[in-house]
Amino acid sequence: MSKQKQLQDSIDSGLSTFTGKDSNTNKYNVQGAAVSIDNSTGYVAAIVGGRGTDDEFNRAFLAYRQPGSAIKPVFVYAPAFDNKYHPLSRVTDQYIPGGPQNDEHSYFGSVTLRYAAEMFLNTIPYILMTRLGTNKLMQYLLNMHSTGICKEDYNSISAIGGFTKGVSPVEMAGAYSTLEHDGEYTETTCIKKMTYQDGSIIVKDQKTLDRNKVYTKESAYMMTDVLKGVLSEDYATGHKLALANGQIAAGKTGTTSNNKDGWFCGYTKFYTTAVWIGADMTEEINNLYGAVYPGQIWKDYMDKIHQNLKPQDFEKPDTVVYKYINPQTGEKVDYDSGVQDMFSKPILDEIEDEKKKAEADARAKLEANYRESEPQREKEIERLLQKYESESYTSVESLDTIDSLRDSINHLIGQIIDVDKANLYKDRLDKRSSELKSSRDKWENIKQNQEKERQLKIDENNSEVERINKQKQLLREQEELQQEKEQQQKEQQDNNSEEEKEAAEAVSKVQSFSSDTSKSDSNLQASVSDAVFKIDKLRNQVLQGALKQAVYDKVLLLK
Description:
This is Penicillin-binding protein 1F. InterPro entries: Beta-lactam/transpept-like (IPR012338), Glycosyltr_51/Transpeptidase (IPR050396), PCN-bd_Tpept (IPR001460). By secondary structure, the protein is of the alpha+beta class. The protein has two domains: about 5-315, DD-peptidase/beta-lactamase superfamily (Beta-lactamase, 3-Layer(aba) Sandwich); about 365-455. It is about 50% helix and about 10% strand. The protein contains 16 helices and 13 strands. It has helices spanning about 5-15, 60, 70-80, 115-120, 125-130, 135-145, 170-180, 215-230, 295-305, 345-370, 375-390, 395-415, 420-435, 435-510, 520-535, 540-555, and strands spanning about 30-40, 45-50, 90-95, 110, 185, 195, 200-205, 210-215, 250-255, 260-265, 270-280, 320-325, 340-345. The longest helix has about 80 residues, at about 435-510. About 35% of the residues are buried.
């Protein structure tokens, strides 16, 4: 089956539930168009302009519609990679007064460009366009022969697909095939060659098709790598559209406001296909999303034409290199942060060259400023030198004053660009320093002796303080021991009182027995044993003897 028929069948079957037709034209209300490009040649492999047989309007070439998010990779993100951004560069996703809003008004804070492209964020492309400039980004579309661009489109809202007229499916297919072709745009055509009857050429063959470098090969590859994530990441908008048999693909969904237009544009190493679904008379279509009808049609067709093709990945240019980044900021770092991202080596080289140039310019500017202010420094050095030459060391205090003056002069001399003048100033400074050396040494010795005496007093004071502190510590320890001893004595007294009380009670119990009680009475014997036991525990021997005697006397009185 030809690719043309396969593409037509995929659209017809994918939209089979939309059966409504216009009563006047007999055309289907919900239409579809698609263009498939053979990446190996650049020619259109299949093109579908609509549904049904009663329709001559070729929407693939002639219908200009709003592209939604499908325009972001070719219009904003890939150009951003051309301009020093990289996939893990971070931009803040937040509400922008007067700007576009995200779906369901959800905002995620600091996000990477990779995440923003894989999702449906509108704020990030808008911010990038305001930073990079509308004119610069519009030139990318013009370089890919986008004929629907008009002057009203030169505003930041176009970053999310808000065009006046729009783009056609064939233009979108051509733009996405440019990413696969290392950033080189090839004129999208079905015509290989056209000649007059006499053999003269009307249209040139494929070898001379118009070609135009749109993106750097590094940016094109990085964009492709990001768009692979649209199909492979679980959170991405196209995660259910991965191709069969492990065929590697990249792509992007697009849905306009109120579900009026749906797009899916994607490519492999072999083919690039763009699918549009919508109505000729723009209207809301129930459940129309880029990942639903357009995405499902794209997957159905691409699975068919890749059945006998071995999965092939996109080739990374040698000039795309991996560098460590700070994961919080997305900035490149010179240490192992554990996170790497892709960078364009030419851009890194350009940044390094710019850095070196900026440093050189800064040095040149600093030197120019120094040269400009040289007379003022010379004047100040002369003033300070004259003052230094008139000074003498007359006290310990003068040491710091004159030494500080000398150091200030020496510092200023080091800033003089004219080496000869600097040497003359240095000679004068050294000469006066030599003249002052003996008197300075004298006062320096006095200062050192004073410092020794002061230190000695400090040491003596410290020793006295230490002695007093030790004495205080000893007194505290003695007080603590005395308190501990008194506490122990008190506790001992309390214990003795309690034991004496218990012994007295036991003796009273023995004495409570009547004189008629037999000495062999078991209760009496138990009471006597208890009393003797408690009496033996007493430390007061006098009391101990008295209580024992009382017990014995009582027992003697019994039968």
